[in-house]
Amino acid sequence: MIRIPPIILLTVIGAIAAFSLMRVKFSASLYEMLPADLPEVQGMDRLNRYFSRDGQLIVTVKASDAYLADDALESLTTRLREENELVSQVFRELSLTELVTEGGSLLSWLWLNSPPDELEVLLDRLKSGSSGEAIAGSMEAIQSGFFDQNVVVSSYDPLGFSKLGSSFGVSGEDGETANPDPMASEDGTFQIVYVEGSGVDFSDYRAAKVWLDQVKVIVADWEKDWLETQPPGTEITVGLTGTPAFMAEVGSEMERDMTISVIATMLLISLLFWIMHRKTKPLSWLVASMMIILIITVNLGGLLFGDLSVMSVGFAAILMGLAVDYGIVLYREAMDTGHDAKGLRKSVGPGIIWAAATTAVVFLSLNLSSLPGLSEMGNLVAIGVAVGALVMLFFFSPVAVQFNRNAVAQKGIQLTGGGVTRKFSGWLAILVPVVAILSMFLREMPGLEANFHPFRIRESPSMKAWQQLQHELLGRENAVPTIVTGKSLEELQQNLKKASGRIEAAREEGVLQGYILPAGLIPNPDHQQANLEAVRKAMAEKERLIREIDEVGFSEDGQELTKSVFEAWADYLQQLDSGVYAKPSGQLAEWSINRLFSEKDGNFAALATVKPTDPRDRDWVNEICTPDTVVASLGSLGTALNERIGADLLRVFVPMMGLLTVMLAVVYRSWRDLVLSMFCLVFSAAVIVLLTVWTPLSWNSFNVCGLPLLFGTGLDFSIHMIFALRREKGDVAAARHGIGKALVFCGTSSAIGFGSLATASAYGLASLGIVCAIGILVNMVVAVWLLPRWYRAIYRMEQVG
Amino acid sequence: MALAPKIFAGILAISFSLSVSGHAQEPPVAPEVGIEVIKRWLGTNTGVGSVKIDFTQTRHMKSLKVPIRQDGILWLDFSKNPRRFRWQTGDPAQTIVVGGGNGVLIIRTPGKKFEKKASGESAAPGMASLAHGFPRTLEDFQRKYHILEVRPHQNTYRILARPLGASGRGVETFTYVVERDRHRLLGIEIQLKDGSSVETVFNQVQANVALPAGLFSPDLTGYKETKF
Fold it and tell me: Counting one residue from A and one from B, how many pairs have CB atoms under 8 Å apart?
């Protein structure tokens, strides 16, 4: 078997590994890796489920003045509308003329759906005798010559259909929340257009990416052409955001992360092996074994978990860093003892199995975390280390034996004391914890960042465009989507009413600045049925009303909106004859209502907006949220996660420490060893605290979950070293030569595995990788270079050794 | 500097036509010349604390069968911050609009009704936007308008501009008609996006006029508040 040329071996297995990785499907939904019981996470889930349109891209344009923005967006819209194969619809802010031609069906539906007493006010206005006064009033306003928006609208709406009742959008204090322009900033320099994609399955992020790349090319070509028509120096910024942009970006970034971290880990571990053993053939088989482990684990993971989350991307690199250790143990044992494969398995097999089992248990303990994303990663690594142990024992061990059969035992590199004297280590043992404590009190206490960015993709163009959109559009900043659901329309209306009460109370208390509850825009079968007859009667007055408008002097254009309202009523009444409620028809009406109301899988949802006074606070969340009313609030989510993770740590970490202390006491049967082992953990923790206080290293709700892993490796390393020192009767050089070298390799390879995640796109994953890599290296240095000195110090007092 | 009222008397309406149809158009001037024209026009406002403009307005509304022609008066008071204005049409006044920092008061005298609108509630295209904030400096003008061209026409310059931001919604272009020699504003044409247009000819412009007490706070006795 080992006669297979390494290049062929690596090519074949590498190709299979690449194929397996390519088949991995990632879930681009970030909320899936968060605690599902939080109202903020439920809010994100429901917002996505009911109101997100997979194929709806938002194109943003920012220019130096409103004219340029308007001109650019007009030109871009025209260009995108020509791309029939990629784009089914482009929706931008309607002109007044378009509003007149399109708005009739929306107004008609809104009146049909309104409370009967509000409709009555309109119908009174339409009655013979009253209608003339309304029409004359509109004409008087036009004749005044002082045009504001209302007068311009009145010129097309002499009967005042657009003067809607109070039920259409209930709002709080500030005008911004009450009447935001959904398509343009106040100064007009920032404008957006909605692009409905076509031709691909947008639920597949790879297809979405292909589509998005094509759109990007079109937009880039358009920008170049458009700028050529403008004066030199003209600049615009075009952004692409919305669901397809997020999906494509997150999915492709995850693929890139996994590929880079796996390749980087393989290369660095290979380099480490080469430095320590200077042999290429066993190295190629070791790499092949790691790839086989990856292939099996990836396929098992796909079978068990389906799509992997952004946080699970890191599992492969971590697994490589851990699994290689088993191969190294086998290789060194074969080199030192000359066992055959069976003998090798007999001698180190139990150790490897137990090591894999304990590592798997530590990673499985992540299931106790509230973060499903982290649990999934823990499960994948746990499966991987079990697979790794088996592959190394049964696939790599014969190879290790073959390569060492005729080999002359190599001297390899020697570990020295690194200048760490007993005195120096003693001072360090005192100084580091003391300085850490002082730093905490004098500078800052390490704490969790209270924001959501650990779960976001770094340097994300679509996220930047989205943030700019939130910032520029009036009233959007800090506005939180609030989703109210019901199993029926009646239940939805009831829940909306209850939510309205809670939200208004929260506003009165001052925890909310304002809100928009689109009660009038949600289909209300009761209202529609109650209004049926009244609308039918009003329709009988159509011809008279049109005649009156005509006689006063309104042109065909001035009559168009009125006519379209009556035509739409006729359509809605037909719908009511055959169904429970009438749905809005026409492009504008459908688009407007579907942004705020959704019916999916027999459930109904309404989208409201609240504006919290302090978005990071959770009081307002607790006040307004119920199982049927949830908020997609990223601000309070950071706080919620910190609260949850803090509780997790107390719930998991403290009992785990107690249990392990008892276990260590049983294992060591020596209080000195127990104290030493625990002190190593305290010392490593002090180093991490110092790094946190004095360097940019910080903790967030994701990387803090790496603490149990660091705790586990710290204990592991100290146990190995203390037992070696016991065996060698306190001979530091001998212990370092044996177990020390193994710990250096294991620690470095694990740190490489975690460290390769530093370039990951997700902040959380990258910070987890950095924290764990640093922590493992600290544990390794403490165990290999400081612990032996402390061991001698603590025992020398009793003349041991 | 003497601030004695200067009266720009004279009937200007007959000296020009706002419409360019039927005449061969001259090419627009170079952008830097156009800027100079605008500067000079705005410079005519230097030292002006108040203005009274008698105007004739003709509105060609797409939604109406026939155009509307009406006379009116616009008072602008630059001496107060925020600026105040009073707009009225008809003789006697049929519609009075008074504005300042706190919003806009609209009075319709025939029905003895009035409406108060908060500031910003009436994002105003057309003449109303002028009343809210007549540009006084080039920077002010450029902040509010995108200059498209400045074109000489007979004895005038026609400054074609597009309003920026919320106040420009619904408006395609503004054309300021400025006297060619003395750079005084003679009238304004507004082209709305729906195809409607409003032409306003300034019949008489008086600068630094005395502003009668109560001009900007009309008596509402006997008037009923409503929502037009």
Answer: 125
